[in-house]
Every structure is written in C-alpha cells, then in structure tokens.
Amino acid sequence: MGLFKKRVNEFPTPYTCANAIKEGGLSTKLSMILMGFGNIVNGQIVKGLIYLLIEIAYIVFMAVNGIGFIAGLRTLGSVEQQEVWDEVKQIYTYTKGDQSILILLYGVAAILITVLMIVIWRGTLKSAYKAECLRKEGKHVNNFVEDLKTLLNENLYRLFMTPPTAFVFIFTILPLVFMICMAFTNYSRIDNHLMLFNWVGLDNFKTLFDSKSILGSTFWSVLAWTVIWAFFATFSNYIFGMILSLLINRKGTKAKGFWRFCFVLSCAVPMFVSLLIMRTMLQPEGAVNVLLRNLGLIANDASLPFFADPTWARVTVIIINVWVGVPYTLLQLTGVLQNIPEDLYEAARVDGANAIQTFTKITLPYMLYVTTPYLIVTFTGNINNFNVIYLLSGGDPVTDLSSTAGKTDLLVTWLYKLTIDKQYYNIGAVIGIMTFVILAIGALFTYRNSKSYKEEGGF
C-alpha cells in the first residue's frame, strides 16, 4: 500500500481553482467563461489577451473541425470506397470513401486538445484569482515583462519543462491513446477492414484469451515462452557475470586487466553484427556443422538442428544471449565488487567466517542491493528483446502452419509479424497493451520485493 500513499503538496498555495470559484470576485468568476478577463481587469492586459486568444482559437477549431472529429468517433465512418466504370476513359475510377484510421486519429487528437485546454483553463483561473488577491492586499501585480523575467528565475522549471512536455504529449501520449483505441476495433486484413472499420468492444481481447482459437492458443504459448525467456536470459547473464567478476577480482588472479579486456572486447562489436554472424555459423551448412562433420563428431549428411528443432532453438538463443550479455554484466558487477569496503571482509575473517558465509552475508547482499535497478531494467528489456530473437532465429522454427508465430517468438516479435506481415493491427494493439501490463506488473513486483528486502534489514 506504500506505493499508493496520498501525495502531500510540499508548497501549498491558496491560489487554487476551488478557492477561485468559491472566494473569487466577479472578474475571476467571469474568467471561467472568458479566459483572461480577470487578468485584464487586474492590470495584466497582455497576459489576459493571450489567454483570450487561446480560448478563441480553441472555439474556432472545435466549431470548424473539432466537433466533427469527435462525432466521427461514434461510427468511425460509414461511406465505403466505390468502384465506378468511366465510359469516356474506359477505365474504373474510385469514389472517395471514409478512412477510419484518419477519423480515429483526428478524433483522439481533438479529445486530447480538449484535455489540454482544460488544463490551460485551470491555469488561467488560478492566475486571475492570484492577481485579484494581490491587488486586494495592496501588493504588486506583475506585468507581462515581469512575468517573462520570472521564467529565468523562480519559474525557470516551467521554461525548461514546457518543450519536453509538449513532445511527450504529441509523440508519446497521442500514439499511446491511439494504439489503445485501435485494440477495440476490427482494423485488420481479416474481412478487408483496412480502409473502413468500426468498434467491436472487447471481442479482440476475448479472441486472444480464448485458448481454443488459433490466435488464443498462440498467445498463451508465446506468453509462456516470453516469461521463461526473460527469466533465464536475465538471471543466466547475472549469474555467469557474477562468477566471472568474482574469479577475475579475487586476490589470487593475475593480469586482471587482461582478462577483463578479453571478455569486454565483444562489447566493441555491434550486437547485430555478432548475432548475424552467429546465425550464419549455426546454419545446417554453417561453420559449426561443417567443423563437426570434419572432426567426425556427426555424420557427413547430418547437421545439428540449432534453429530447426524447437528445444534446440530455445536453448541456442538463451546461450547466445549469455555470450553477448555477460560482458555488460561483468562490467556492472566489477564496479560493485571494487566498492565493497574491505573492512567488512576483515571483520568477517576475524569472526571466523568461511568463504561461503562471506559471500552469502556480505558480497551477494551488497551486489543485490546495488544492482536491483539493473535487474529490473534487464528483465523488462529481455521481455522486449527484439534484436536477439529476430536477428538470430527470426522466431523460427514454425511447427504449426496455421500459427502466426514460431517457437522462439516473443510477444514483441510476434507483434511485429502480426502488424507488418499479417496486418492484424487490432490484435497487435491488444498484444501491445498486454505486454505493457506484464512489464508494469513485473517491475512493480520486483520493486516491492527489493524495497521489502531493504526495509527488513537487507544489506
């Protein structure tokens, strides 16, 4: 429950919308209808006119296009594109029909603009109430030039935060809401709903959760493998990286820098290059199988099914992920080991602790304490690890021709195939939502466990 504690305002202010509505004068109350009116009355003419122009621009936008955009969300269009024979040109022409994708996009944008307008409206109301209170108290009310100067002093955070907030609103929130809405439509190549589609409610979710359907059975299979992959890919890297870092950093190891260089050298090569090389080497006629044939370890007409057998393919991608991921873990844990106070080990030796006790009571807790955020990021990254799977196995092998996913496909690679190759955009949107939910639950669970560990006396 600690994650959902009520936020306490560290800098309370009396200039709130509630106080403006309850205690504000006539000019402030009129600002609810005419934005900026209260500022103009209280001497902030330029500021008030800017607010008024924003309101006028919003009203014009809604009157010309906005209301129509929002109204279009009800049906997402109904006029189909028609094929008409032109007798004069002796060719078929096509009449213009509704494009549901644009109707949905414009409608969502109009709603978000309305939400943004409500936020601005609240700001103008508080600004008018503040100007009124300052004037009644006989205090100075800033003019427009003085307000601009405050952007370089006490309101500097507003100046710096406005551009990134605008970009987040346009390039993150708008596409995210658009994608979520798409999950409740039949926008896909199925039944030719690429140009004109409509709302279907929760039908896509029902299809995906129905284990008896092809998509449903594929989803549960891919989901199970995604979780298994994320677990083994995360902790195999962590464990092997821990072992290597402990071996290299032990006092008896000579030429520590040389050994670190050997393992970290692979980081200098772009990962996609390494993955493509390994993919080529593990093909039936690749270097590995050819070498094994020449050594007589396998028959001349045989080859190891690295990507042809489901079990072999899954084990192969996990092992290669360890190969490309352990050097990064080694770097992380080497820094952690070098920062553990030597006094702790001296005290443990004085108390008679052996190597295992020292590791379990000092080294491991310290490493987990420092690297928990790294583990969370790595786990969530492996759930969405598109590069390793797509570049290495391509999701293969495909054992069921009716399925849209291979045996090594993760949710993210399956999502790519559904949208790019199959054009099942609605199902892809549902999978995107489910991936986000899984990531959020996993991150929250890991965070709460690590927090409980620290509160219960962890290192």
UniProtKB/TrEMBL annotation:
Gene3D superfamilies: MetI-like
Source superkingdom: Bacteria
Keywords: Cell membrane, Membrane, Sugar transport, Transmembrane, Transmembrane helix, Transport
Pfam families in UniProt: BPD_transp_1 (PF00528)
Keyword Isomerase listed: no
GO terms of biological process kind: maltodextrin transmembrane transport
Places the protein is found: Cell membrane
Ranges that cross the membrane: 49-71, 101-121, 166-187, 222-246, 258-278, 312-331, 366-392, 424-447
CDD domains cross-referenced by the UniProt entry: TM_PBP2 (cd06261)
Family affiliation: Belongs to the binding-protein-dependent transport system permease family. MalFG subfamily.
Function of the protein: Part of the ABC transporter complex MalEFGK involved in maltose/maltodextrin import. Probably responsible for the translocation of the substrate across the membrane.
Protein name: Maltose/maltodextrin transport system permease protein
Taxonomic source organism: Lachnoanaerobaculum umeaense
